Amino acid sequence: MKLTLIAVGISALLMGCSTANQSNQQSAPSGGTSITGNQLQKMNLSYPNTRKDDVTDSYFGTQVADPYRWLEDDMSSETKQWVKAENAVTQAYLAQVPSRDKLKERLKVLLDYEKVGAPFKEGRYTYFFKNDGLQNQAVLYRQLDDGEAHVFLDPNTFSEDGTTSLASIEFSKDGSLVTYLISEGGSDWRKAITIDVETMQSVSETLTDLKFSDISWLGNEGFYYSSYDKPEGSELSAKTDQHKLYFHSLKDKQSEDTLVFGGTQAQKNRYVSGHVTEDNRYLLISAAVSTSGNKLYLKDLNEPDSELVTILDNTDSDTQLLDNDGSTLLLVTNLAAPNKRVVSVDASQPQPENWQDFIPETNNVLDVSTGGGYIFASYMLDAISNVKQLDKSGKLVREITLPGVGTASGFSGKKDQQTLYYSFTNYKTPSTIFSLDVESGESAVYLKSKAKFDSDAYESKQVFYTSKDGTKVPMIITHKKGLKLDGSNPTMLYGYGGFNISLQPAFSSVTAAWLEQGGVYAVPNLRGGGEYGKAWHDAGTKLQKQNVFDDFIAAAEFLIAQNYTSPDYLAIRGGSNGGLLVGATMLQRPELFKVALPAVGVLDMLRYHTFTAGAGWAYDYGTAQDSKEMFDYLMTYSPVQNVREGMNYPATLITTGDHDDRVVPAHSFKFAAELQAKHTGPNPMLIRIETNAGHGAGTPISKTIEQYADIFGFTLYNMGVKVQ
Question: Which residues form the Peptidase S9A N-terminal domain (predicted)?
């Protein structure tokens, strides 16, 4: 059972200023009081002198300058000095924000509660994750039957500063052995440690240099994992584009591991993974060149010398194994089904022409899991969960009654489990864990959240607004009850809009801190996401990427038109692909926003594919080398290339990590340099660079508190809102 560690910590999803002439007579946003004009005087900012080089690239006969190319070299002493200088300017500014310390203390209170994850059974033991409150990392506990729980793994002991995290963990089928992956400094590169669960002693050498890897056990003999060859130069930014699947036998050294797939030019793919069925009979290999679409292969492990059988030889669909019953395979696919379906097929002839619908496609996007001998079909209805329980034949057993409108997740486990667990949450409701008796269908509260937040004082509702081309887009808006719609409410508009990722409502104590200040929190489900299936995703990719920005801009215009807020009180935030969203929209419509908060953003669209695994994002973005049409289109919105001279942009706080090897920090560095060089006006153009930190996953709680105290303090200060 593989576990990613986000259920009991701060959400790894990154959410999320101008000081113009504001007077004492300005009306205060709801829940705050106005700051005096003297307090809002422009802070003296002197940005570092960022060297400009005469570097140009030619694209289809067009010369494009790239004066800050040198900032891409994360190994150079000059880049390191630039980072120190920028951080010094940013921290000097933030130190003068009067609400920073107050927000930090409030975030500590909101995050200081016991967080416990759903239990899961492995071998003789029951395991669960728990964070006592402000521990940097969640701790894995175990107990035998009804006995006392004891610490099994404590990631807080992995490093003194809490920056080495437990990235994932996978038990062998009988639960006697476990392999866990650790991430150091937020990097995507992992180490794999394998131990005996009884003795806690290592049973294999530590594997190094795994990346974007699952662990899948074959009995107790060993496991499959994935990695790239170690890149030349910087491992944080050098390109990696040939993923390989290996089998590690516990008795062998890593140098002796068997290369299973990906070693030839014909098998060259950017993402490769292997999965062994629960009965150890089959190995399924998925291979992809991009983040959407995969090839699929099958190997019969009962016949070690058997050849790979091709199920899909193209990347026109996303197809994965759900389960097997003997030689009958159940596959989840969007082939000829944009909203996904489940098909059954015999392993002897597993190609699409032999597929039979097991769970047919519907008008709603399907996610599916198994546990207790049943199948659970979770549908998204306008980004809201609806869950149905099916038997082995695909017949409806019951619809699971959920406690409200929100997001339900879980519903998975081993085939012989009588009790499964699921969580339910929305933007104003802390996550509650429920137990589900799979035979009776009865749910019961297993663990209620201890979050220090009064949900009853807030309301969350879904609205639909019209984008530029007439498309209806859903958005969930959360705020205190009794909010006055007078245009003066500080509002955080958060978005993503890409990679088929769906933003479903979920509680965050960090967001709670914003809501407590009288803030409005609004999340639209933009095109490019997966809320309405493959068609919705594709409508926000490549030559249609502007649709995503238009949807976000229309969300802002809706909030303003409905008097939730106004341009003086509107902040936009997004991370990764959402950082691109913020960067593009703040440049296209600077007058709409007071504050822009791009986090770990993809901001240089001409060169993103030259770093680490960035070329795998081409399904969503296209590349500047694809065609003149694609290059011209990218040039219309790429943030680094579209900062204009003499513009008054919103107050901007860019955030990134110096160890981010997914979206390398050079994106943020170059964008900051462009803004600082060309922006005109009093608004700050700052970059906050977290050291020894990556793309976001595994961030210690201590750093999370500091980061959001800075982000919210910066935002409210530039809106003229005094923290309560």
Answer: 49-446
Residues 304, 307, 308, 314: what is their CA dihedral angle, to the nearest 10 degrees? 170
For 486-519, give the DSSP string.
SS---EEEE----TT--------HHHHHHHHTT-
Pick the closest to residue 374 from 347, 346, 395, 351 (CA basis).
Answer: 395
Kindly write down the DSSP assignment for every residue of 590-611, as one continuous string.
GGG-SEEEEES----TTTGGGS
Judge whether 127 and 140 are in contact, CB under 8 Å: yes
**Tokens at 414, concatenated:** 């081993």
User: What does the angle CA 370 – CA 376 – CA 381 come to, to the nearest 5 degrees?
Assistant: 140
Interatomic CA distance for residues 646 and 717, integer angstroms:
24
Angstrom distance (rounded) from CA 615 to CA 253: 32
Coil, helix or strand at residue 674: helix
Q: Half-sphere exposure of residue 24, counting CA atoms within 13 Å on the CB side? A: 4
Q: What pLDDT shows up at residue 230?
A: 80
At 19 the pLDDT is 27
Taking the C-alpha atoms of residue 636 and residue 543, their distance in angstroms, rounded to an integer, is 11
Q: Which DSSP category does 549 fall into?
A: H
Q: Residue 413 corresponds to which tokens in the numbers above? A: 């486990």
The low-confidence residues of the chain, meaning pLDDT below 70, are 1-44, 233-238, 659-660, 692-698
- The contacts of residue 4 (CB under 8 Å, 6+ apart) are 167, 168
Q: Which residues are catalytic?
A: 576, 695
Please state, in angstroms and rounded to a whole number, the distance separating the CA atoms of residues 310 and 324.
Answer: 17
pTM of the full predicted structure?
0.90
State the helix-helix crossing angle for 77-95 and 666-678, rounded to 10 degrees: 60
The pLDDT, as a whole number, for residue 38 is 30
Between CA 181 and CA 183 the distance in angstroms is 7
Q: Which residues are within 8 A (CB) of 623 and not within 5 positions of it... i.e. 6 or more apart?
A: 609, 615, 630, 634
Could you give the 3-state DSSP secondary structure of residue 181? strand
Tokens of 179: 């392999």
What are the angstrom distances between the C-alpha of 319 and each of 26, 95, 279, 326, 624? 56, 50, 20, 20, 29
Q: Do residues 490 and 518 touch, judged by C-beta distance below 8 A? A: yes
DSSP assignment of 610-661: GSTTGGGGHHHH--TTT-HHHHHHHHHH-HHHH--TT--PPEEEEEEETT-S
- The Cα-based distances of 678 to 42, 51, 718 in angstroms read 18, 14, 20
Q: Are the beta carbons of 522 and 556 closer than 8 angstroms?
A: no
Decide: 602 and 589 in contact? Cβ < 8 Å: no
Distance in angstroms (rounded) separating the CA atoms of residues 165 and 162: 7
Tens of pLDDT along 5-34? Answer: 323 232 332 233 322 222 222 222 223 223
CA 512 – CA 106 distance, rounded (Å): 10
Angle at 470 between CA 468 and CA 472, to 5 degrees: 105
Cβ density class 215-251: b for 16+ within 10 Å, e for less: bbbbeeebbbbbbbeebeebbbbbbbbbbbbbbbebe
